[in-house]
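User: Hello! I'm new to structural biology and keep hearing that structure can be predicted from sequence alone. Could you demonstrate with UDP-GlcNAc:betaGal beta-1,3-N-acetylglucosaminyltransferase like 1? Please show me the input and the output so I can see what each looks like.

Assistant: Of course. The first part below is the input, the amino acid sequence of UDP-GlcNAc:betaGal beta-1,3-N-acetylglucosaminyltransferase like 1. The second part is the output, the predicted structure written as tokens.
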Amino acid sequence: MPTWFCSRAWFSHVGPFDEGGQGVPEDLLFFYEHLRKGGGVIRVDQSLLLYRYHPWAATHSVLETTIWTHRVRFLEEQALPRWAAFTIWNAGKQGRRLYRSLTAASQRKVVAFCDVDENKIRKGFYCHEDSQERPKPRIPILHFRAARPPFVICVKLDLTGGAFEDNLRSLHLQEGQDFLHFS
């Protein structure tokens, strides 16, 4: 589980936690504000802190849908404006969920889904049935090698025995420029 820390001066600069009450992901909101104000992140590959976990922790009051909504809005605010078009890597449940969660303007930037699942690729497209648009949007589903970056990747890491990571590496892309992880 990742954790982070900062100086008291930086904390004061970013602003206090949102103490909006139970169900507010105050640490996530603070982190996003940290990034908006130019804060960085440095990865340390060793344990620096040990958490005590218990069933009464406040973290359990934050709904997954609340976190999802904040993550999507941050993606739309900070990353998607840099791209005129993009591909969602995963034509499955998470990729389609991301597409449906985007604003109409961001949905129009999605030029394709990509995947490795032959059944999804053979289907050829994803039709957004809940759309109010007529005709309903039909987004192509391509093999990842036929798709064009940039990608928003909705595939969890370390679940495919390294196959996904190998596929991504084979494209020689730069994280942050050609793709972002959203999983």
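User: So the tokens describe the shape?

Assistant: Right, they're a compact way of writing down the 3D structure. Reading them back into a model, for example: The longest helix spans residues 64-78.
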